[in-house]
Structure formats: structure tokens, C-alpha cells
Amino acid sequence: MLDLKNRSVAVDPEVDTRGNPIHRLIAAGLFLMVGIAVGTAIMIGSFRERALKNSERQLENTAQLLAVHFEQLFRDFDSVQITVSRQIQAGIDSPETFKQQMSGEDTHLMLKSKISAYTDLAGITVFDADGQLINSSETWPVADINVADRSYFKTFKAGTASTQNLIELLHSRISHRWSIVVSRAIVGNNGSFLGVISRGIAPANLEAFLATVSLADGEAIPIVLADALWTRFKIGEQYELTDAATRRAATENLFISAHAPSGGLVSPEQTVDSLQKRGVRFLVCMNTVAGATKKLAAAGLGTADEIRPAILAGLLPGVVVVPAMVVTLTQLQERGVKYTKIA
Fold first, then answer.
1. How many other C-beta atoms are found inside a 10 Å radius of the C-beta of residue 218?
2. Which residues of 181-201 are buried (b: 16+ CB within 10 A; e: fewer)?
3. Strand-pair category, 193-201 with 178-187
4. What are the structural domain ranges in the chain?
5. What's the CA dihedral at 183, 255, 291, 53 to 10 degrees?
6. Radius of gyration over every alpha carbon of the chain, rounded to an integer in angstroms
7. Is the pTM of this model over 0.85?
8. In sequence order, what DSSP letters do the residues of 63-115 get, joined into one string?
9. For burial by CB atoms within 10 Å, which of 16, 74, 91, 151 has the most?
10. Sign of CA dihedral 205, 209, 212, 216
11. For residue 117, which of 155, 152, 76 has the smallest C-alpha distance?
């Protein structure tokens, strides 16, 4: 009989481990999961960093665009105010003479002519030394309005203003709406206080410009469409863009120099063609064209087969159509080009 009690079999641990496929499968799975986790983390971090940089660049460029626009806006605003105040205070030394000479209809017509090219701003108002409204570019005859209790008027009359212009956000007694009032004292040749000339900017007008800077996705294409397309496809009506001169839906491109002075939403310096002269390039993605085509077709303004080629043929000169905006912007950034996303 074979005795197996004291017999033992030697097992090589190395051979045993390598020969177990389950252990090897588990180890490979763990390494794979760790690799996927690390790769995903790196990819997410990279995308996040790129998104932050793109947002920072876009905000910076938008801020610059706003700064240039409002700088020009207030420069024009102040220029008109200075010109008028110098004209009306020439040769006037007393508050009584000032009130008498500035209360006529001829002065109203003069004031009206001065602001005819600035429809985005409120009219000029003139107050005498007692704060009484004596003339306006907006209406004639003027209403019975007094601003002697306004802080800017008290400051000018007391001679304690530290700057030539004072700016306040007030509820206008003329328009009965909130208005950003920019006022300037009128002083006679002998230094006597004659009155105040003021102008107001409705916050709604500033909001209208801001809306053109950050429109909803796909809503910016009207900016680069020729007048003929605005008329044919009722762009003003479809995109709710109002001509300031007519107070109706626009039938012409409000973002080009030809219409900016009369009914445009931007100043002449911020129109498409003016920006192009300064080196700005406007890009339109095919997805945006497709979106506009769908929108106009749904409004019954033609079929998609009619609208799409009409849009592509009716873009303003110099506007470039790109197949994919994301790819194009990535390539531009790699070459150091900055951009501002309008929509």
C-alpha cells in the first residue's frame, strides 16, 4: 500500500500566479479603469481651460467694443451740449435776459436742428436760473416743469460742482420715464449763473445696443444682410428690429453707415463697414444660415430652396461664410487672432 501521509508537493508561487487568468484579467481591468479616469480628467481639464480662455477673450473684446461705442456716444452728446450752451450764452449777462431770449420758438427750432442727427439720444432741455423749463428741442410750447429741487441743479446754482457736467439717473418729468441725465451749467460772461442745459439718454436705448452685442444664437445674421434682403424677407419684423426714425419695423439694414445716422441701432463708428475698414472681419457659419432659412421659411416668406441661396448671395461685401465656426475659431486662435462672438 502506498503511504501518502508524510508526502508533500512543492508548488512554485511564481508559476501559480502567472498561470491564473482571473488574476491577470482583474489587474488589466484595474489598470484600464485608472487609465480611463486619468485620461478623462486631463481631457476635462483641457476643455475647461480652453472654455475659460475663450470666455475671457470674448468678454474682453465685447468690453472694448462697448467702451468704444459709449465713448463716442458721450463725446457726441457732450459736443452738442457745449456747442449749444456757448451759442445761447454769448452776449447774455443776466438771468432775466437769458430767460427772455431763450423762451422763443426760434430757439426751439435751433435746438431741434442741433440734435437732428442723434435720434438715439433724448432732446435738449433748457432751464432758467430758477429751474423752470423755458425751452426744449422736443416739444413746443413747453410744459410747466421745474427742476429746482434736483440735486444737480442745486449744485450748479450753488457753484459747488467739481466738474463741468453732472450725470444722474432720474425719473424724467418730461418723458415720465427713467433717464440718464447729463446736465451742464450755463454761465454768463460776468460769471453769473444763468441756467442749466441738459440732455437725457433713455436706458432702453443703451439696452438696445447691448442686445446687438449679445444676441441669442443665430439672431445676429441680420447685421450682415444687404438692404434688399431686409426688404424682401421683412427682416425688421421677423427679428424685431425697429427703425428709430419711423418707429416701425426696419426695412433696411440698421447696422451699416448708410442708415446709422437716421434709424440705426449703432453709431456710425460701430457699423459693419466702419469696423471692416479698421480690420474687423465678419464670419457667418452655415449653421446660422440654415437657422435663418428655417425661420424665414416658417414665416411663409419662401421655401428653403429659395431663401438659402438668396441669403448666401445677399451678404454684405467682405463677409466670409465658414462651414463650421468652432473649427474656424480654433484655427484662428492658433494664429493669434482675437474674436468677439456676436451670436
1. 16
2. bbbbbbbbeeeebbbbbbbbb
3. antiparallel
4. 80-205, 215-334
5. -60
6. 34
7. no
8. HHHHHHHHHHHHHHHHHHHHHHHHHHHTT--SHHHHHHHHSSHHHHHHHHHHT
9. 74
10. negative
11. 76
Contacts of 121 (CB under 8 A, 6+ apart): 73, 76, 77, 115, 199, 200, 201, 205
C-beta atoms surrounding 283 within 10 Å: 17
Residue 327 burial (10 A CB sphere; 0-12, 13-18, 19+): exposed
pLDDT tens for the chain, residues 1 to 343: 445 455 554 545 544 545 567 777 777 777 778 778 777 777 776 666 665 565 555 555 555 565 565 566 666 666 666 777 776 666 777 888 888 888 889 888 888 887 765 555 567 889 999 999 999 888 889 899 999 999 999 999 998 888 888 888 888 888 788 887 888 888 887 888 899 988 877 766 665 655 555 555 557 788 899 999 999 999 989 888 888 777 788 888 888 888 765 555 666 777 888 888 877 778 888 888 888 999 999 999 999 999 999 999 999 998 888 776 554 555 555 555 554 555 4
Q: Which three three-digit cell numbers place residue 306?
A: 429659395
| 46, containing H or E segment | helix 21-89
Give the CA-trace dihedral at 57, 58, 62, 67, to 10 degrees.
Answer: -10
Q: Which is nearest to 121 in space by CA: 163, 84, 159?
A: 84
Bridge-based pairing of strands 193-201 and 124-128 is: antiparallel
Look up cell 479616469; give the residue.
37
Where does 80-205 sit in CATH, by number? 3.30.450.20
Identify any residues that bridge with 182 across adjacent strands, giving them in sequence order.
Answer: 167, 199
